[in-house]
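Deliverable D2.4 — example input (structure tokens):
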């Protein structure tokens, strides 16, 4: 039986009897009951009440390519004409990797092995958040690709700001934070030969309506849009806004590099002026964060003067 069809019916959050579900799906009530176990394996919480039937513990807005496209303007719609929405994948970044074409967008309702930066996992429960990957091909890029992940951060921040009216901050290089709690993350992976076009996989995860239970394994402090916005955020609309902002930012980055984005990035900088600790492979640097350079490096003022860093993990030092 098609698990997707049963989820679509239950997505309204209302009770549906085993009998009516069986009729809609052309299966027995026992098969419906068995299917509930499968849905629970996907992480969906099912309420089963005698005499009423089954319902999901909360309403779900499932992703719909048709709806997403309705929110896009003509040129963005054309640019992202290749798009797939999957129910369950290991990681959307892996899905786009196998495609020979670019641009290509893949979204999923859930990831079983979602990946974060620095080998961490990205908790990806069903139907709650956005897991989006885009493969983009750069023919010639005006500068190094270093600043690209910062530009993608700007695109994600703009999308959230335009749709939810929330000003989120950027923590170098590309974490999106709200009051220092992580709201979204970006994972860039490069593909390509030494010669020929460079293919970049841009993976974006946004916490939209993750429950505290679903996110309980996350080791850092995090927040979901549903916790900070008065309005209910539509994942379809937010996806369209993300694609709209990416369509604006990526061609400009390709033509001109990061320098023109620096000012905007610094307006959103969530750590500038703070004492920070930058952990590098075999040492760490402590000092005051001073924003970013024209190519997107982190600037830190320490006893050794002002230095620029291309990599590492930054944390804000809490004063004792
Ligand atoms: C981070 O650690 O901040 C980066 C998180 C990136 C998560 C997204 S979700 C879509 C895409 N698929 C993945 O497996 N990871 C990225």
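Example output (designed residues):
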């Amino acid at each position: 039986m098609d698990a997707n069809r049963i989820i679509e019916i239950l997505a309204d959050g209302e009770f549906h009897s085993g009998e009516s579900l069986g009729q809609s799906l052309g299966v027995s009530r026992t098969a419906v009951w068995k299917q509930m176990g499968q849905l629970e394996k996907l992480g969906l919480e099912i309420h089963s009440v005698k005499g009423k039937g089954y319902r999901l513990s909360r309403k779900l807005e499932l992703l719909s390519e048709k709806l997403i496209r309705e929110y896009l303007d003509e040129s963005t719609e054309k640019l992202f004409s290749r798009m797939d929405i999957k129910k369950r994948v290991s990681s959307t970044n892996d899905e786009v990797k196998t495609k020979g074409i670019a641009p290509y967008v893949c979204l999923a309702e859930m990831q079983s092995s979602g990946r974060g930066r620095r080998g961490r996992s990205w908790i990806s429960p069903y139907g709650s958040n956005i897991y989006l990957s885009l493969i983009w091909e750069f023919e010639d890029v005006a500068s190094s690709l270093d600043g690209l992940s910062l530009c993608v951060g700007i695109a994600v921040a703009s999308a959230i700001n335009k749709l939810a009216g929330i000003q989120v901050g950027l923590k170098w290089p590309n974490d999106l934070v709200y009051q220092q709690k992580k709201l979204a993350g970006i994972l860039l992976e490069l593909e390509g030969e030494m010669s020929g076009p460079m293919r970049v996989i841009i993976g974006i995860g946004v916490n939209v309506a993750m429950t505290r239970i679903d996110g309980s394994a996350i080791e850092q402090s995090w927040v979901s849009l549903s916790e900070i916005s008065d309005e209910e955020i539509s994942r379809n609309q937010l996806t369209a806004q993300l694609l709209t902002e990416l369509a604006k930012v990526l061609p400009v980055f390709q033509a001109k590099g990061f320098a023109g984005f620096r000012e905007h990035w610094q307006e959103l900088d969530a750590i500038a002026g703070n004492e920070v600790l930058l952990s590098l492979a075999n040492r760490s640097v402590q000092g005051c964060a001073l924003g970013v350079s024209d190519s997107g490096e982190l600037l830190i003022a320490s006893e050794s003067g002002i230095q620029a860093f291309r990599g590492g993990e930054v944390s804000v030092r809490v004063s004792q």
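The mean pLDDT is 93.
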